[in-house]
């Protein structure tokens, strides 16, 4: 099955609250031990598992990432079941430690508080419900997951929740903590509210996988916005991110993992480096994207099957580069709309270190260099417009911007050896492409 469209919709300080195996009146051991049980009782919303199932139909038969059963019902349920929830009001310097499965509601405003999830049961599923909570720390994550099967961070409808780290992160033994939300295990972000994150390093970090299925995220960081080792999978949500890499799946010690899959959502990404980065694969099946970055999208294998994408870049717009030793370098464009505008200099709108295949979609490029392709090119469908002119052929390196040699922007037909302003290039705009220079 493939998705067809995106979805609408202290002792450490002064005191530690510890949830032990005894539990409380509002938290039984049986509750949330099984995701299947919890899913069966999860509060319904307009954004449910059934609505996802009804949209599964097949975007593209040759998708590089298998999306079947990617999201569970609980992943996609945006309202938490609070029937047996435990409530906490955060207080300055008072850490909260959670040691067993359950649903925990966080409220209030405080400084220097860490909500730590450390469950001995490796099958435990913990749901942290942010209900108008605000935490500002100097050197530690606001949420720190050391052990659990999966942790959900869910924002309640209509609330604004703020998590900040304002100083330098301090390591936890051998663990270099570097995210406002830092998890060693699988992490899911969802909900119907807003989460504001500010960080001197990264925003959300998962040393395993990260899923986002709903909610609004305002993220401003000096490091990466959303960062995971194994994968990032996004079904929906609104993302306003200003970071180094806005969305990145990468493991510095293993280049065979680290993919990004996006089904839908609204993305406003401002990056000093990459808007979206995957080590192995990047697959986009839907969504609306406005990306301002050095490189808009990058992975070893990039597959674009849908979506409405606008990219303003200063290096490469879409880059399929050999980041992984286990994946062939390739760019497939099978559908969607792409408006790419490049800055001046040594920039490429589409840079492929391997194979380029275009079977559909609408690509509108404004650039001096439109395509830089090292391998084979197949252009069998879709529409490609370069600097206002539709092209029917793509060559390995196409210079299409205003000429830099010869009189005026048009240059002399064919140009002179050494000039860069020859006659009309293939699909080029005024000024043409390559004459017989160099």
Descriptive overview:
- With about 450 residues, this protein is mainly beta.
- The chain has helices spanning about 35-40, 50-55, 75, and strands at about 15-20, 85-90, 95-100, 100-110, 115-120, 125-135, 145, 150-155, 160-165, 180-185, 185-190, 195-200, 200-205, 210, 215-220, 225-230, 230-235, 240-245, 245-250, 260, 265-270, 275-280, 280-285, 290-300, 300-305, 310-320, 330-335, 335-340, 350, 355-360, 360-365, 370-375, 375-380, 385, 390, 395-400.
- Residues about 1-45 and about 400-438 have low confidence and may be disordered.
- It has a domain at about 1-245.
- The chain is built from 3 helices and 36 strands.
- It has a 36-stranded mixed sheet that branches.
- Strand 34 (about 385) and strand 35 (about 390) form a beta hairpin.
- The protein starts with 14 loop residues before the first strand and ends in a 39-residue tail after the last strand.
- It is elongated, with a radius of gyration of 24 Å.
